[in-house]
Specification:
By secondary structure, the chain is an alpha+beta fold. It is about 35% helix and about 20% strand.
């Protein structure tokens, strides 16, 4: 009886420890995309695990170049070592001690300095979100694309597009309007001005209207400065709107056309048009721009399927409507 009781006490230890680690690996404990986050949204081709690995490698390489090597505290090193030692522990520890240790480690991991890049659950298939801390995602991604565009050196295999996300809010029209009135100011509020287009994509969301979002956001840009103008061919700025479930991800990027819609596979390909365009500087001031106060309405549209695996529909207007990517 005593032996049987000891066996029952030993079994839950491994179970609870493994369950806690699995939860963290799946993105548990607050590691999900939510309003208030900044980072980099990455699309891939059916291999999210490899995509995360490529993203860490690529972002780590350029992050070290721009911001210096990432520094870790002694506490982080001790925590990492204690996690490894846990795998080698004796099964003689009782359940209470094992659970207490697990809770202490989780608490310590939340109190310590967070990593520069951290993968979180995006909420959509073939989409990875890397949360960033202490860096400007738009400058980092622009630097990566500029270097790849110049060298034509392919550095990834499964990553398709890499979009910086400078701000997130709840994906409801009133929340988006209130948020973007301030968010757009650095680029479009007078005396700043610029030519722009809006690209829109929604995943696992059916309550938002693409036409309404584009119209409202373009109206906000116009209200900040009537000199802002729409340019669908080669705008100075592209407003990226990526909606996943109930989270709206936003950014204002440069060289969107030149860098092939921020597609890492396409930007390394040679093209005669490249010789006629020069990428903007990473440290370029955001003062010079142009835009139209109201959105130009679309007269006719054709619906195409961008990603058959996700079953997401995308509309592309013909004529002088807002271009979506």
């Amino acid at each position: 009886m005593a032996a049987a009781g000891a066996a029952r006490k030993r079994r839950p230890k491994a179970h609870f420890a493994a369950a806690a680690r699995a939860k963290r690996a799946r993105g548990g404990g607050g590691r999900q995309l939510e309003a208030g986050m900044r980072g980099i949204l990455i699309t891939c081709n059916m291999n999210e695990r490899k995509c995360v690995g490529e993203a860490y490698s690529l972002l780590g390489e350029y992050g070290d170049l721009l911001y210096g090597p990432e520094q870790f505290s002694d506490q982080e090193e001790r925590l990492s070592g204690s996690e490894r030692e846990e795998e080698e522990e004796d099964d003689d520890d009782d359940v209470e001690a094992a659970l207490k240790k697990e809770v202490d480690q989780i608490r310590a991991s939340t109190e310590q300095k967070l990593r520069r890049f951290q993968s979180v659950e995006s909420g959509a298939n073939n989409v990875v979100f890397i949360r960033t801390r202490g860096i400007e995602p738009e400058n980092l991604v622009h630097h990566i694309l500029k270097d790849m565009h110049t060298t034509k050196k392919k550095k990834t295999r499964v990553i398709l597009r890499m979009l910086p996300i400078s701000g997130t809010c709840k994906a409801f029209m009133e929340d988006m309007k209130k948020y973007t009135e301030t968010f757009f100011e650095p680029w479009f509020k007078a005396p700043n001005k610029g030519t722009f287009q809006i690209v829109y994509k929604a995943r696992n969301n059916s309550h938002m209207s693409r036409e309404e979002v584009i119209k409202e956001l373009a109206g906000i840009v116009g209200s900040l400065n009537p000199e802002n103008k729409v340019d669908l061919n080669n705008p100075q700025y592209t407003i990226v709107v990526e909606i996943i479930k109930n989270v709206c991800c936003l950014s204002v990027v440069r060289d969107y056309v030149l860098f092939r819609k921020y597609n890492l596979q396409e930007v390394v390909k040679s093209n005669k048009e490249d010789a006629q365009q020069k990428p903007s500087s990473v440290t370029e001031e955001t003062n010079s721009k142009v835009v139209k106060p109201e959105a130009e309405e679309e007269n006719s549209k054709e619906v195409t399927q961008e990603n058959k695996n996700e079953g997401e529909l995308e509309t592309k207007p013909k004529g002088n409507g807002m271009l979506t990517a």
